[in-house]
UniProtKB/TrEMBL annotation:
<dbReference type="GO" id="GO:0008270">
    <property type="term" value="F:zinc ion binding"/>
</dbReference>
<dbReference type="InterPro" id="IPR033315">
    <property type="entry name" value="Fan1-like"/>
</dbReference>
<comment type="similarity">
    <text>Belongs to the FAN1 family.</text>
</comment>
<dbReference type="InterPro" id="IPR049126">
    <property type="entry name" value="FAN1-like_TPR"/>
</dbReference>
<keyword id="KW-0539">Nucleus</keyword>
<keyword id="KW-0479">Metal-binding</keyword>
<dbReference type="InterPro" id="IPR014905">
    <property type="entry name" value="HIRAN"/>
</dbReference>
<dbReference type="GO" id="GO:0070336">
    <property type="term" value="F:flap-structured DNA binding"/>
</dbReference>
<dbReference type="InterPro" id="IPR006642">
    <property type="entry name" value="Rad18_UBZ4"/>
</dbReference>
<keyword id="KW-0234">DNA repair</keyword>
<keyword id="KW-0227">DNA damage</keyword>
<dbReference type="Pfam" id="PF21170">
    <property type="entry name" value="FAN1_TPR"/>
</dbReference>
<comment type="function">
    <text>Nuclease required for the repair of DNA interstrand cross-links (ICL). Acts as a 5'-3' exonuclease that anchors at a cut end of DNA and cleaves DNA successively at every third nucleotide, allowing to excise an ICL from one strand through flanking incisions.</text>
</comment>
<protein>
    <recommendedName>
        <fullName>Fanconi-associated nuclease</fullName>
        <ecNumber>3.1.4.1</ecNumber>
    </recommendedName>
</protein>
<dbReference type="GO" id="GO:0004528">
    <property type="term" value="F:phosphodiesterase I activity"/>
</dbReference>
<keyword id="KW-0540">Nuclease</keyword>
<dbReference type="GO" id="GO:0016818">
    <property type="term" value="F:hydrolase activity, acting on acid anhydrides, in phosphorus-containing anhydrides"/>
</dbReference>
Length: 740
């Protein structure tokens, strides 16, 4: 595998079927040039950009013009204008001039902030999650993380100190520009966590005696693991801790209180158990209740009401737990109130998907157009069956699915569900052979089995012995259709497959964008929710303070999305060993870097810029594409082209941890083409670069010792002794594995 390929695969994540810029990228004007990647014109362009940026300060008379697409100032030279317009128009969007947003990782409804609570400012504000919200975790949107109860108690113990600290920050807001945007937490913080933006009854400080008899509405889950399958309306129940549960150390069983044997009826939800388990163990509280209604299906959730019953314990122990009691009780009530937003008929993966959509739209409204917001918000108005079918199909490979093969236990009527999705624009149907194109027919043929493909060949009276492999049969049928020898192929294929369904391009694009904004990487997807729900993956509780937006505006997101598309096309071209497309994509990435203004490059690669935010810039993605292109060109022995690209990377990205690798490859490639003195000079200059570290630094030192022998260099470098020392090899055995 080429160096940098694995990193690019992780960046791209799940491959998308629809790429919005595919056509424009593959027909990019840069691809019409010859297949040699020259750097002379690009260097001139960079120089002109530098002159443009500093011309006003040095008194240069060079004319600057305003780009009608993005609004940036560019050089008045015709070549510069044309190059810049090509880059802007390929994105297909126009920059919004003003953006004002609040990015917060908080999953509860937010109250309207009055002017007295929030300092006025026109800048982006710094959000802060509630100090008493115990359902936040390291992956935004995953409230059901099932952390150990000591995490909950420690959060409660630190919340009081944090609340006083925040008030101190507010008092000092004139000295700290970030603090002036914080919400005044001197009022009860649960107000902004309440789903209805009002303080629920009992949220003020209460004692254990006051909550006795207060009811909480929840439900029994995990009925398939119960001892008693049949339930009676009004049956008495009680809660019993299950600390030895392998899946959740906070698990609380619901047992029958009517029979003396205390049969298990199931469990209470994980997120509520996380709050009640320390109340039961540390505060010695008992909870009893009754069954409110009986579901139709024996394994469905069972609505119940539980009430608190206090146990008697010594006063010394009571004084130790009272300080944590109020916080735990408030969180338990908030979890119960939040659960009311989701009906019992909604499956867990439905809830997770709705959390993702709602949180992204709430935290990043400036990154979506009004039509896109309306489209995504319409998902919640679909029927339960339609929502479930869409989520199921979106997580599958696709792109096409046969309706006859779509069947899920939780979906009552798949046909009606698909019709609802089609009417809302979430899926496309293949039911008219006359409107199909070549690519659709190819995808339809991939849905068929080998036997079905053979039947089609025989039915069309074509050669039935074209091969036994599915790939050979498909290629034979497509070749006949392309040559006009088999015009009936689309109708015959549709007859075999029946109606087929596919996620629409708009839905896939927007959901992909929502996933990327939610998880902030390409490696996680909706399956992350499942891992957390099952307790396989656990994330720590924390308070999130966001002082800068990941994407300041919609244009930045679209540019990043286009860069990811280039990276995906690059990965696909490597799979198909398509050298022509690879060279085209390398040129595109190189041109995007060279056509970017020096101001944009410096702001995105400066040493003071947060390193995490750099990973969400289009320039950073293009640099990965170019870096992988260098590896490809080296494999093809096109060292001159690789050298030009490496020089561009080193000149544009001055504060980057990859400079050591780029410098090393530049020195090696110069040696390949016979420029030994230049190779040695590059290695020596690399040692003066503070961003060249660790292994790359040692490799450059070894090259200097090898290339710097007399008569090129007479003086022995000071690091020669340390490089030549023998490093002891240590073997470490553990669990049958070996590392050296």
């Amino acid at each position: 595998m080429l160096n940098g390929r694995e990193s690019l695969i992780r960046l791209v994540g799940k491959r998308r079927h629809f790429l919005r810029n595919r056509q424009s990228l593959l027909s990019d004007p840069f691809a019409t040039h010859n297949d040699s990647i020259e750097d002379t014109e690009a260097e001139k362009l960079v120089d002109s950009k530098e002159a443009t940026e500093f011309g006003s300060e040095s008194g240069s008379s060079e004319k600057l013009v305003t780009c009608p697409v993005c609004g940036h100032k560019v050089s008045g030279d015709h070549n510069d204008i044309n190059s810049h317009l090509d880059a802007c128009l390929s994105r297909g969007t126009k920059r919004k001039l003003t953006q004002q947003t609040l990015l917060q990782s908080n999953f509860w409804s937010q109250p309207k902030i009055s002017s007295s609570e929030l300092e006025p400012s026109g800048k982006n504000v710094s959000g802060r999650g509630s100090d008493k919200s115990l359902v936040h975790n390291a992956v935004p949107g995953l409230p059901d993380f099932g952390a150990a109860e000591e995490n909950v108690i420690s959060m409660c113990q630190s919340s009081r100190k944090l609340e006083s600290d925040m008030q101190t920050h507010i008092d000092d807001s004139s000295e700290n520009p970030v603090n002036e945007y914080w919400i005044n937490y001197s009022t009860d913080t649960t107000q902004q966590l309440s789903p209805k933006n009002e303080v629920p009854k009992g949220d003020m400080d209460v004692t254990m005696d006051e909550i006795c008899g207060v009811t909480l509405e929840t439900y029994i889950v995990g009925r398939r693991f119960s001892d008693e399958k049949k339930l009676l309306l009004g049956a008495s129940i009680s809660l019993l801790r299950d600390p030895n549960n392998d899946k959740d150390p906070n698990a609380i069983k619901v047992v029958s209180a009517d029979s003396g044997c205390s049969k298990s009826l199931g469990f209470i939800p994980r997120e509520l158990a996380q709050c009640l388990s320390p109340l039961i163990e540390k505060c010695c509280l008992n909870f009893e209740g009754h069954v409110c209604s009986i579901p139709k299906h024996p394994f469905d959730c069972v609505p119940i009401q539980i009430a608190c019953r206090k146990s008697v314990f010594h006063g010394e122990k009571e004084s130790e737990v009272l300080e944590d009691f109020n916080c735990l009780w408030k969180v338990a009530k908030l979890v119960v109130e939040s659960a009311k937003n989701y009906p019992l008929s909604m499956t867990k993966y439905q809830q997770n998907f709705c959390v993702l959509i709602r949180e992204v739209l709430r935290s990043n409204p400036h990154l979506f157009s009004e039509d896109e917001k309306i489209f995504m918000e319409s998902f919640t108005s679909l029927s339960n069956d339609s929502q479930r079918i869409f989520i199921r199909l979106y997580t599958r490979k696709g792109p096409w699915f046969r309706m006859s093969n779509i069947s899920y236990a939780e979906v009552l009527d798949p046909q009606e569900a698909v019709k609802g999705l089609s009417a809302a624009g979430y899926v496309c149907l293949f039911e008219d052979a006359d409107e199909s194109d070549y690519n659709e027919i190819k995808e339809m043929l991939n849905l068929l089995t080998v036997c079905e493909l053979r039947d089609i060949s025989c039915k069309l009276k074509k050669n039935c012995n074209s091969g036994t492999r599915k790939k050979d049969l498909i290629e034979a049928l497509l070749s006949l259709h392309k040559n006009g020898l088999c015009p009936k192929l689309p109708s015959v294929v549709l007859e075999k497959t029946g109606v087929c369904v596919q996620i629409s391009s708009q839905a896939e694009s927007l959901i992909w964008r929502a996933e990327r904004l939610f998880f902030l990487n390409g490696e996680q997807d909706l399956s992350t929710f499942l891992l957390v729900d099952l307790g396989i993956v656990k994330y720590p509780t924390y308070n999130c303070i966001i002082s800068e937006q990941i994407f300041s505006g919609r244009d930045d997101l679209l540019a990043y999305e286009e860069a990811i598309e280039v990276a995906q096309l690059m990965d696909q071209a490597l799979d198909g060993n398509n050298a022509e497309v690879l060279l085209r994509l390398i040129k595109i990435a190189d041109s995007r870097i060279s056509s970017s203004s020096m101001k944009a490059i410096n702001s995105s690669t400066s040493e003071s810029a947060p390193k995490f935010l750099l990973y969400f810039s289009a320039l950073w993605v293009y640099s990965k594409v170019v870096s992988l292109g260098v590896s490809f060109l080296e494999r093809e022995h096109r060292y001159n082209d690789a050298i030009n690209l490496l020089k561009r990377l080193l000149s544009c990205f001055t504060f980057d941890g990859r400079r050591g690798y780029w410098t090393l490859r530049l020195s090696i490639n110069l040696e390949h083409i016979g420029y030994l003195n230049e190779s040695l000079a590059v290695a020596e200059d690399g040692l003066q670069d503070p961003w060249v570290r660790a292994g790359s630094r040692m490799a450059l030192q070894k090259r200097i010792l090898r290339l710097g022998k007399p008569p090129r260099r007479w003086k022995t470098p000071s690091f020669s002794a340390s490089i030549k020392r023998k490093i002891t090899e240590v073997l470490w055995r553990r669990w049958g594995a070996m590392w050296s």
